Amino acid sequence: MSYSYKIENESDFAKARVEDVNASPKDLAEVCYNIRRKPAEAALQLLEEAKARKRPIRYRAHNTRMAHRKELQGQKGRWPVKCVGIVLKCLESAVANAKERGLSEELVVAHASANKKHSYMRYSSKGRRNISRLETARVEIVLKEKEEGKKKRLEEEKKKKEEKSKKNAAEEKKKKEEQKKAAEKSEASQKKEEKPGAKKEEKAAKPEEKGEKPETAKATPEEKKEAPEPETKKGVEPPEKKAVPKTEKPKPETKGKEEVK
Hints:
By secondary structure, the chain is of the alpha+beta class. It is 42% helix and 19% strand. The chain contains five helices and six strands, in the order βααβββαββαα. A hairpin with a 5-residue loop joins strand 3 and strand 4 (75-78). The model is unreliable at 257-261 (pLDDT under 50).
């Protein structure tokens, strides 16, 4: 069900409602009348004092044969503790809803009302025709933010946004600087790794300095075929190979027969 109070801009309001409460709608209506159009803090204080029986609730209607109270300067009133507790819980829930919406603490009770909800028939036992009725009620409370509080809230929100933007910019700068440092470190490490590799290549390219012969790759048969023959000068014959004389092995000496004396 919709609220009986018309709300133009819901961003400036907070509301709460209690349904089917087992309490007198007349007493609830008088309690709501006492807190209407008051600041939320003052209304909470009034209800807490009334619940503790330190301050009576003024009755403007339904007050026949009701005593006068000197705390109310001779006006009629009493202490409806049960109804005060119900309205107090509803008001506390409305204040909590305002905090969740991000409203300021400067709130006013724009609307507070109580109405009859249902009435249930009750019959006495043993077939008696004594009939009674159980009436339930509904309580509505709407809080509105003051204009001064709204201005302060908007200014605070602007400041928070500016601070957030500044923090984000500073964080982005830090990230960029860290990325640059990491890139420089990676480049320096790559250069260091490349230098010892170049030294090894130089050593491998100059092994003759240490008296070592460079390893020559074996030529494949195709390369041998393709390799050109050594050129000879015109009119000059290649030197003939000198024949090396064969040396005869000395024959082993044979001992002759011994001469007979």
